[in-house]
Design a protein that fits this description.
With 103 residues, the chain is mainly β. It has one domain. It is built from no helices and 8 strands. The strands form 2 sheets. The protein has a 4-stranded antiparallel beta sheet with strand order 1-2-3-4, with no helix packed on it. A hairpin with a 5-residue loop joins strand 5 and strand 6. It starts with 7 loop residues before the first strand and ends in a 15-residue tail after the last strand.
């Protein structure tokens, strides 16, 4: 559905079905992207200097949890869809990945 160059994967519909979060490759790094369900308005949400992948929507649709880091360590982060505020959730050695939300 995307027209952006590079690999895209991990698509997840928002709780209301109006948007899709996914991760995609740009400048040799994965970032979390958001687009409308019809494929329009693709936006890089994380625009980070580390890899970001495995998006998971919060039940209210305001936050996306994701895995972020590099080969030395990956942590769980959340980003607010509207304000782009990022918060690191885990602080551990090793690879924290594949976040999910509890309803």
């Amino acid at each position: 559905m995307t027209n952006k160059p590079g690999f895209d994967s991990g698509a997840r519909y928002s709780p209301d079905g109006k948007q899709i979060a996914f991760y995609g490759l740009e400048n040799d790094l994965f970032n979390i992207y958001l687009m409308n369900a019809d494929g329009t308005h693709v936006t890089n949400l994380t625009n980070d200097t580390t890899e970001c992948y495995s998006p998971a929507w919060s039940p209210d649709g305001h936050w996306i949890a994701y895995t972020g880091g590099d080969a030395s360590n990956y942590e769980i982060w959340v980003i607010h869809v509207n304000t782009l505020e990022k918060r690191q959730i885990t602080y551990s050695e090793g690879r924290d990945q594949n976040p999910s939300w509890k309803n």
